[in-house]
Predict the 3D structure of the following.
Amino acid sequence: MKKTSQTIITADQFYTITAASGKVLEVADFNTENGAAIQLYANAGEPWQQWNFVRAGEGVYRIQNRFTGKMLDLVDGGVTDGTWVHQWEGAPASSQLWVLEPTNDGRFKIKSNLAGKCLDVVGMNAENGARVQIWQDVNGDNQLWVITEVKEKKAAAPKAEAAPKAEAAPKAAAAEKKPAAKKPAAKKAAAKPAEKKPAAKKTAAPKAESKSAAKAEAPKAESKPAAKAEAPKAESKSAAKAEAPKAETKPAAKVEAPKAETKPAAKAEAPKTEAKKPAAKKSTRKSSK
């Protein structure tokens, strides 16, 4: 028979209880209720397959399930062969007290402190779901158990995974900082075109002033001819005076006056006054007859 080292039971530590078939003791269907069955099943590392040995005296323990918190107990406190084992909430009852007897090969016999009988596999069944009971000590393999300390491998694995994530985080942060450095450069390039736009506005401003200046001068040029247009009114008055009888008596004075001829010379209406002067001479001829 293969020998194994003897496990030392310590407080606040969890263990698996393994049968000769390699199956471990568990609470059936991870049921948390009082009276849930205790059976054998393939080890999946689940908490309902792990047990804590709560010391109750010298070599005497209460065996508590990690998942449900309930104790390994004899159904109805039975002491006869074939009494099944179930779980029940902790109570100061001898039906929940168990004695660990080490063997020479490193395994244990788990005996009821009340009945003095061994924890046993019903019908020596090696299949998943095999029930357990108490039976008189026959020193058979179905009454020998390997108690193994549970090593928290699952708790250690996330820590190892957390370290690469922490290293990846600075890389991701560095990748984000690089685009941030390029963004200020893009802002400077945009600022240069903004400086050129004000320059274009300054060149356009003088053009607008030159147009307004030209418009301002244009009305002045037009206002001067308007004053000249009123001058002919004064000429019409002189023409009216020429037609008056008084002008006929003194024709020579009006013809020789250079001032009257110079004023109409600048205007296109001056020849009209000269055409009327010969008519005045005819009237003088009649008077000589």
